Model the fold of this input.
Amino acid sequence: MKTADIMARLQAKYPLEKEYLQAVEEVLESIEEVYNQHPEFEAVKIVERLVEPDRIFTFRVNWIDDNGQVQTNTGYRVQFNSAIGPYKGGLRFHRAVTPSMLKFLGFEQTFKNALTTLPMGGAKGGADFDPAGKSDAEIMRFCQAFMLELWNCIGPDQDIPAGDVGVGGREIGYLNGMYTKLARRYNTGVLTGKGMSFGGSILRPEATGFGALYFTQHLLAAAGKSIEGKNIAISGFGNVAWGAATKAVQLGAKVIAISGPDGVCHIPDGITKEMIDYMLVMRASNRNRVEDMADRFPGKAIFTPGKKAWSIPCDIALPCAFQNELSGEDAQELKANGCWCCCEVSNMGCRPEAIHFFQHNGVLFAPGKAVNAGGVATSGLEMTQNASHISWSAKEVDEKLHYIMHSIHEQCVKYGTQPDGSIDYVKGANIAGFMKVAQAMLEQGVC
Ligand code: GLU
Done:
């Protein structure tokens, strides 16, 4: 297989699907050499099959806003690959959602889920619905209308959605309530990220951020460094950024910046517990403004409009917001300001030029599919608890999450160690995820 040939075919077929093409190219470039050492994969066209989703559901979502007006959005579920388990992946509600975005996310999810060591295939879904400025009642009506279309495409052994950007505990609650009504049965395992009173797992809300920090600890240890006392810049203030900030502070680091679409808050003395709690209030308000932090903590959080977190000098950068949020220029600015490590927590948060710059300028870098896999891994743990009708303690879930993040790091080391002893985490994560999915596809025949 030649990456260039496959990319040329996909570009001709899907010329407008930029994010999807970007995600596929990154993976194919990493795996090309290993793939070509396995003629048995080539014989059954594993790569050609793996880059296309199994199927995509597209549906219209009609709902009524608080003014009594009919609104129309488009919803999707991309069931990408089920070679190693039922389809699993989040739902994203954001005005910019397109099939390209969800195909890239479903493709990434397939490898990420393989890395978790748990039996979960890859999927993603969502809608071009913009939660910004919507009332709670509007969010509920939208979630109900969305589930009306989705419910018979999903199930505990079939496809298990969860949250993502714009979909948190509140939205999962509304989705689950409507699913139960439509299916006329109580399936605790059909969505993950549920509330604690109806089958949710303890630590699931924190898990993506906590897992990212556990992975970062392993990466730093492998480089002979530690996280204590380091300055960390974080983008975003949603669920993932909140979990990352919480664990970073617990581990003795200082979070000196958080950012939003409107600009950045510099927090020279480090984020406090009150500020971390306030991130949840900001997320729930649907205002999508980080300036609210500066208004709430004057003199402690200093807001600069139009700037990113990457403009604040730091040791470690943690992109926790959206794909392609960290550009090549941002990478250069980070390095010039002393940053020496970037762990990508958002899915495909860094542009390819940024990753290239980090890797060639001595900045430790690890990709989202390894760093943020603790979220979906804990969803997998939620599924296990639901299927066995039990609930584990925080200690039990945290130990399992620790074990999984350690194992993901080990897989990156196994497949990513270079002849000079350095670790290429992009290669490591992509090859490890690919080998598992490819082997499962091979053994199950062409179907
Ligand atoms: N949306 C999260 C992710 O990107 C979590 C998915 C899940 O828990 O199914 O991995």
Notes: The first strand starts at residue 55 and ends at 64. The domain at 207-362 is CATH 3.40.50.720 (Rossmann fold). DSSP finds 17 helices and twelve strands in the chain.
